[in-house]
Amino acid sequence: MTNIIGCHGAVWAGSIDDEGFRAMVEGTRKAGFDMLELPLLDPYGFDAKAARAILDESGLGINASLALSYDTDISSERPEAIAAGEALLERAVDVLHDLGGHYLIGVTYGALMKHAGPATEQGRRNGIEVLRRIAEKARAADMVLGLEVVNRYESNLFNTAKEALAYLDEIDNDNVKIHLDTYHMNIEESDMFGPVLASADKLGYIHIGESHRGYLGSGSVDFDSFFRALAIAGYTGPITFESFSSVVVDPGFSNMLAIWRNLWDDADDLGREANYFIRNKLRAVETITLQ
Ligand code: MN
Q: How confident is the model at residue 291 (pLDDT cuts 50, 70, 90)?
């Protein structure tokens, strides 16, 4: 097994100030993960130098995810939002580079929100132009740019791996990869197998989340099919556990993702279980391609 296994910071804390970052690093390390996925919704106030010192001491790797908002929507037709979005993405690349990370992922291509209608052709082209520039800035920083495929209530640009592949063709930049998330796949895809194989060559990052975003194995996601598909696809990239509960609240994040329910209250237990769950599944499918 060569995949790096990570944990999303929202399992541990609702903010990325000094105290929050420490809690994320400590929780992730104690639960047995290799890497922290830092929620970098606001990369401006973040002290990357102080965080790097905490991170280096822990021995953990790091990557960062974000989601653009209405005011930073590069796939809109509003010049000020497009400019603000590009500036935010540039800043995120700089911050993650200072932290030593190699994957900037999430809803990096548009606003995470329930849109009132489909994306316009012009909006789509605007976003693609920005992403081409960000992809090159990321490449220079030894970093991959990932596009997370999310459900219809969170994006109007693409909601399935097949649609994301078409979007990727339009971008036409090999430093942009597809980021699949089992929570979103469970809503939009016909099965958990085909999308992984179809996007195998372009797959750069994985989120593992349950159907209700709680404990892995306690919802309706067909993880057996998904992990088999990863093995057959020969996926060697990062795999991150993502879960949210109303116990850990980031005001922006929780409201954006509609986290109203308390699905767990012991993050340490949740994290440990998720770390075992993911590693056990990967181990179980390791020999599939030899059979
Ligand atoms: Mn996700």
A: low
Position 212 scores a pLDDT of 96
Lowest mean pLDDT among 15-19, 53-57, 132-136, 286-290: 286-290
**In the predicted model, what is the mean pLDDT of residues 2-17?**
95
Domains of the chain from N-terminus onward? 5-289 (3.20.20.150)
Residue keyed to tokens 């640009």:
157
80: left (phi over 0), alpha (psi -120 to 50) or beta: alpha
154 a catalytic residue: no
- DSSP code of residue 248: S
How far is ligand 1, taken at its centre, from the CA of residue 191, in Å?
Answer: 17
The whole-model pTM stands at 0.97
Q: Check: CB of residue 85 under 8 Å from CB of residue 72.
A: yes
Instruction: Give first-to-last CA distance, the chain, whole Å.
Output: 17
Choosing from 148, 189, 210, 273, the catalytic residue is 148
Return the structure tokens found at 13.
Answer: 């804390």
Taking residues 251-257, report their average pLDDT.
Answer: 83
Cβ neighbours for 102, distance < 8 A, ≥ 6 positions apart? 63, 142, 143, 144
Verify whether residue 242 is a known catalytic residue.
yes
Residues 6+ apart with CB under 8 A from 108: 66, 67, 68, 89, 131, 134, 145, 146, 147, 148
In order of 8, 44, 130, 171, 260, the CA distances from 125 in angstroms are 31, 27, 9, 9, 35
Give the DSSP letter string of 176-245.
EEEEEEHHHHHHH-S-SSHHHHHTGGGEEEEEE--TTSSSTTSSS--HHHHHHHHHHHT--S-EEE----
Task: Identify each DSSP E strand in 9-143 by its residue range.
Answer: 35-39, 61-68, 103-111
